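A quick aside before the break. I want you to see a complete sequence-to-structure record at least once, exactly as it would be stored in a machine-readable document. Don't worry about memorizing anything.
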Amino acid sequence: MNLKALKEQKNEFLTKKEELLNTAINENRVLTNEEEIRLQEFESAISKIDGDIKKTTEEIRKQTVEVVKEGKGSMNKTELRQAFMTALDGNKDLSKLEIRETATPAVDTHDGYNIGTGAAPFNSAHKGADSVPVTLEAGIREAIDFNSNVLGYANVIQTSGTQEIVLDASPASEARLVKEGASIATVDSEFRKVTVKAYKYAEIVKFTREVVEDVNFDVVGHASHRLGMSFSKAFEKSAMRGTGTDEPEGLLKPLAAADNDDLQKASKHITASNTTIAAKDIVAAYYNLPHECRENAVFICHPDTVKALAMLQDANGRQLLTDGLVPGVRILMGCQVVETPYADKLGTAGKAVGMFVDVRRALTVGVRSDMNVRQLHELYAATDMVALVATVRFDSRIVQEGAISYIVAGAAPTGA
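That is the input. The structure line, written in tokens, reads:
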């Protein structure tokens, strides 16, 4: 049924409903049982038609969307798919290929997959909306951002290659009291050069040619989602476990040189057992962190460690792990808990089973501004498969070790 017919049918039921109610009003009486049943039937029918009208309107909008973009027109969904297929045949770099119309979807999770389509003209009414086409490169970056837990707190910079940056190696020193007219001695501030390199990461996503040509499947959104997920996992693993030798540096690297008596070094607190964690361990590790780092600190641990934290209580029987104001967010000692599968689990002596860390002070992340996405022809041509290979360059460097306070698993219990 078309949109016009649905609206006419709705008007018929509205008219019948009005006549039924007016009859009872004119006769100065309440509705009879039979009239009550008929009224409910009319309201149910009107509600169903409203749903059909909404669904039909959305289908028409998707089929006929024409979006106005500042300076030039935008492609619709069919044209975007055709541009993708043309780019595949031309063996070109696909990173700048548009994958979304100039549009604002009803729900945009920014995970690089559910990026949607829709009509949102570039005007004041849609200020701040997603009214700019998204490229395949941008879709991958959105997926990386959405699926990265630790990297979201780091100091991320865009680089164009290997470069050196100069950063403070420690918090600002204390100003000195001097007498009027007295000379002011100079003190060298502590700086260090951090070389942010460009390690190459690559991933391949493949699908059949039939899928590319299937108008009911968002193949480009699928590709950006899969590639973004793969890169986010690799980057997060490096940012946690990287050794710095032919690879990025991770937050676990300073553990070997941790020293509680040196503010320039990471600190650590050792638990009484390698299988349990106590409330006193949490409190000690938190206060081992320099006070200027506590305000923006988070607690990073493995998801299994969160289960152990959920059982901890203070001396008054209150839970140490509490729910934040946002659903799904957990708070420990006022710090947000960040779960990552690349942290160490409880059970192995000497491993960091958790850490309070001001990630922005401790870790600097460099991501190359250029990204390359190309089709692989030779490897999958025989099976009629389409494969895209994407390369991204990434590095992470520890800048301030003192912004990290570890909880280290102690020795195994006697007899274990």
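Two observations worth writing down. The two ends are 72 Å apart (CA to CA). The first helix runs from residue 3 to 26. We'll return to this after the break.
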